[in-house]
Specification:
There is one protein chain. The protein has about 280 residues and is α/β, with parallel strands linked by helices. It folds into two domains: about 160 residues, Rossmann fold; about 110 residues, Rossmann fold (3-Layer(aba) Sandwich), CATH 3.40.50. The longest helix has 19 residues.
């Protein structure tokens, strides 16, 4: 696995001049639990930083929504969350939300923002066969932003894309402690392998923060000789750079917030605690 250094250019709005409250959290936002793969790396880089993890489970999945729906929903939610929680920085730990709504969010929020982009640049540097697979949501793989990344960093190589919404549910199920549907894993691998040149794929971009949660299952499906790349480490480095020199004071346990209706399953709570999210609530 490699990190996505192309996350670094997804820079934030200018850091506010006002002093930062040491208790001010970093807000990590995703459509579901996929952003936990980013949170894990943020913890390593900034272990003292207060964290709020926000999962828009009421809006899941983003990949099947229109661009207008995603942009309006993400901007609206983050507007209310930043007003309520006053974070020092917002991390949009979701490729779909970032490729669609990042510009809009930066226009309306006066807080540093770090987004997530598909790790095409490091994948292009890693591949030996010149054939790269990209697994994302249906919305992500069709974005012009991905086209631009391909043109800039993977010119002369072949990038094969597949929208794999089934992997989102597979990742969510795994985090709940449930069985991962092997058909969803096999379908994602077969969909890339069956494309022209797909038999030569040696590098796969996991262009959804959910997908690293099932990287082990995907590795078995693709077989030996295939490497996977995603952006969590690069995002964490960018957050650390933008908050360098700031003080941290955790005055309450870190927490996870969900927008969905109903109770949060106990299996979720157990896993969230393993990520340091000791309180769980609704937004």
């Amino acid at each position: 696995m490699a990190s996505d250094t192309t996350s670094a250019p997804q820079t934030a709005n200018p850091t506010p001049c006002a002093p930062i409250d040491p208790a001010s959290p970093i807000l990590v936002f995703d459509s579901g639990v996929g952003g936990l793969t980013v949170l894990e790396e943020v913890r390593k880089a900034l272990p003292e930083a207060p964290i709020i993890y926000a999962a828009d489970t009421a809006g899941l999945p983003y990949g099947s929504k229109t661009e207008a729906q995603v942009a309006a929903r993400v901007a609206g939610l983050l507007g209310r969350m930043t007003e309520r929680f006053r974070p020092r920085l917002v991390c949009i730990a979701c490729n779909t939300a970032s490729t669609i709504a990042l510009g809009m969010v930066r226009e309306v929020l006066e807080v540093p923002i770090v987004g997530t982009v598909p790790a095409i640049k490091p994948a292009a540097a890693m591949t030996r066969t010149g054939v790269i697979g990209l697994l994302g949501t249906e919305a992500t793989i069709r974005q012009a932003y991905v086209d631009r990344l391909e043109q800039e960093f993977a010119a002369g190589k072949r990038l094969l894309r597949h929208g794999a919404p089934g992997l989102v549910e597979a990742a969510e199920a795994k985090l709940r402690g449930e069985r991962v549907d092997p058909a969803a894993i096999a379908h994602a691998a077969d969909a890339l392998r069956s494309q022209p040149g797909g038999d030569r794929i040696d590098t796969v971009v996991l262009a959804c923060t959910h997908f690293p949660l099932v990287e082990e299952e995907l590795a078995q499906a693709f077989g030996p000789g295939v490497r996977f790349v995603h952006g969590a480490q690069g995002i964490a480095r960018q957050i650390a750079r933008l908050t360098q020199g700031q003080e941290y004071a955790r005055q309450a346990p870190d927490r996870a917030l969900f927008t969905g209706a109903g109770d949060v399953p106990d299996a979720y709570r157990t896993k969230l605690a393993q990520y340091g999210l000791l309180e769980v609530g609704k937004f």
